[in-house]
Structures are given as structure tokens and as C-alpha cells.
Amino acid sequence: MKNKLMFSIYLLASISILISCSSRNSGSNTGNVTETDETELTTSANGKYALKSGIVEYTTQVMGMDAKQLLYFDDYGKIEAQDVQMEIMGSAIHTVTINRDGYIYNIDMVKKTGTKVLATPINSVSIDFENLSEQMIKDMNITKEGTEEFLGRTCEKLGIDYTKMGLKGTYLVYKGVALLVDTEMGAMKMKLVADKFTENASIPAEKFEIPDNITFTDNVVR
Q: What is the pTM of this model?
């Protein structure tokens, strides 16, 4: 059971990256929103997000169990970090995934082990839907389903039916950031709900730093 749930956590980190579709909805700036000037939006035209930086705090349900997940991003998504924590049968689970300098680092913060692979559009920490080809949109069967208000913002509602991965679900996306994700992959159901979203946040550099005490495996893909 524990191994299955561990797999679910790593799968969550992979599936949750299918949430980042760039959107240009203006929305209403309420709650934890800071003002974004039009210069930043213009600069980010080719970025993964329409915001320079952000912090999203999520509550996540994996196989009926609650987990906490944090997303940090800067430079319009060129660097990102995901932090997932939960407890299974009294054991702490803490994984961190960092995308920087052209590599993806998947780290088990409890065991102090990790893997490092070359970042590609296939294994990126988060998929940039804005720059997907028409063929990829067709393959993943991504559909626009209108807009919906969530966390004080007007989000674009997107559907996905990615047959190849057996992934199906809906997403509420604001300026490239998914604030709500409800998916299923086979018998596994996962729900990711943003509790707080801080736009254009000032993020400490250490959030994107690779810990010195991690032993990485030798399967570095170049």
C-alpha cells in the first residue's frame, strides 16, 4: 500500500505538470493578487506564464489522501520548483522537483536521493500549452469549455482527454497557472485545488537551489 501511494505522489508531480496552459484572461484582481503592468504581459508573450513569478499553495487529494503542494516559478516559468508533502501510515513523504539550467531534478527530501535528467518538452516540469503544435493539441484532445470564476479570478476552463496516457480531466487556468485540476488516470483520481495564489511574488533564491546533501543517480540523460 505504501509503495503504491509513493508511486501516486511521483505520478502526481508528473500529472500536475499537465496543468500549465497559458491564458490571457484579464480576470479580476482580488484576494491575493498583485497588480501586473502591461509591460510585463508583453514581455512574457513567449513565456510559459503571463506572470513573471508566482507562488501557488495547493491542497491535493491522491487516492483519497490529502497532501500539500507548492509551486514556485520565476522568469515567466523558465525556472520552477514543485514541493509535495504528505504522511502515509506515519511516514513522512517529501518530494521536490526543480527545473533550472536545462535540467530536471527529482528529489526525495527524506531519503536524500534524486535523479537528474536533461529538460525537454517531453519531460519538462510543466508543459507549455501555449506553444504546443496543432498536432499535439489534437493528440491530447485539449478543448476550451468557457470560463469559470475561482479564487477571485476569471479562469479559462479546459478539458483534456489524453488517450495515450489514459488521462482525462478538467482544469481552471489563469494566466498560464492552473488553480484547479480534477483528473483521473485509469482507476487513480487526483484533485489539485489552489488555496492561495500570489502573483509576481518575491521568491527566495533557495527555493530553486539544489540541496548539497542529495545523492543523485548516474542516469543523467544528455
A: 0.78
